[in-house]
Amino acid sequence: MKPEISIIIPTYNSGIILTGCLESIIGQTFKDFEIIIQDGCSTDDTNERVEQIISRYPEIKISFFRQKDDGIYDAMNQALEKVSGRFVYFLGSDDRLHDNNVLEEIFNNASNLFYDVIYGNVYGSRFNGIYGGEFTEDRILNDNICHQGIFFKRSIFDKVGLYDTRYKSLADWDHNFKWFFDANIKKLFVDITIADYADGGFSSVKFDWTFEKERIIKYFSLRKSTLPLAIKVRYYISAIKTALKLKDYIHLQKVLSKMSVILFHA
Q1: Are 11 and 38 in contact, with CB atoms under 8 Å apart?
Q2: Stated pTM of the model
Q3: How do beta strands 129-131 and 87-90 pair?
């Protein structure tokens, strides 16, 4: 019988922190899940620690895969090929589910399961407490929804695609744009703290200039509702400044071309 949720944990040399992450899942009162650990060929004791957990909790379905990857989002994509659950959830190896009732609060409410994407809050020192709340079309341009706070139906990745591995630390923001602006994808915010976010992970310390320079154009290519011309121009000017800062003149031409279209069709 297939589980309701596949929980994916990408790892690389995570042995010292992984046990706490796994135990926060294993301790859940809702048990209809599988855990998939997608390891990028760690050189520490990650493998041994996973074997210890598997032996300690034989009743929990835990799968461990070692495979070279091109970063965390490539590892997440690789793991998606192995899931059997109806829903998918990604948790960093240094993150934790917030308490033992998180999964039960989400998945024992039958009305929640009607939705394709369910998202909530996360807790972290980086945010001085709780981060999240309900997102709007305006807000998602400048704020990202943490992947530790999102449950996806597996079919979402067939509809909008996998993570774009060109973006090394913000591919989840790019992916969030795609499903958030898709009118055929049913999304639900639940005011629940889902995970404790560990500051210092890859995405929190590595700025993704590739995504940043493309963020404005991507946003306006997906957003269907209208914005005042002055606001659009302001955002495009911000994109121009980023392209100039990076001395990326090819991208600068793209931004100027897009900006000319909105000006001459205003």
Answers
A1: yes
A2: 0.88
A3: unpaired
For 127, other C-beta atoms within 10 Å of its C-beta total: 14
Contact yes or no for 116/186 (Cβ under 8 A): yes
What backbone phi and psi angles, to 5 degrees, belong to 58? -65, -20
Per run of 10 residues, the mean pLDDT along the chain (length 266 residues) is 95 95 98 98 96 96 97 97 97 97 97 97 94 96 96 98 96 98 97 91 68 88 77 74 77 70 59
Q: Which domains does the chain have, with CATH numbers?
A: 5-205 (3.90.550.10), 210-264 (no CATH)
- One-letter amino acid for residue 142 of the chain: N
Judging by DSSP bridges, how do beta strands 87-90 and 5-11 pair with one another?
A: parallel
Quick check: 95 and 22 in contact, CB under 8 A?
no
Taking the CA atoms of 65, 70, 71 and 76 in sequence, report the sign of the dihedral they define. Answer: negative
Query: Could you please report the per-residue DSSP string of 182-224?
Result: -TTS-EEEEEEEEEE--TTSHHHHS--HHHHHHHHHHHHHH--
Q: Torsion over CA of 144, 148, 154 and 156, rounded to 10 degrees?
A: -10
CA 249 – CA 225 distance, rounded (Å): 29
Q: How many residues does the chain have?
A: 266
Distance CA(237)–CA(252), nearest Å, equals: 10
Distance CA 138, CA 133 (A): 14
E-state strands within 105-181: 117-124, 129-131, 150-153
> Which of 166, 180, 247 lies closest to 208 in space, CA to CA?
166
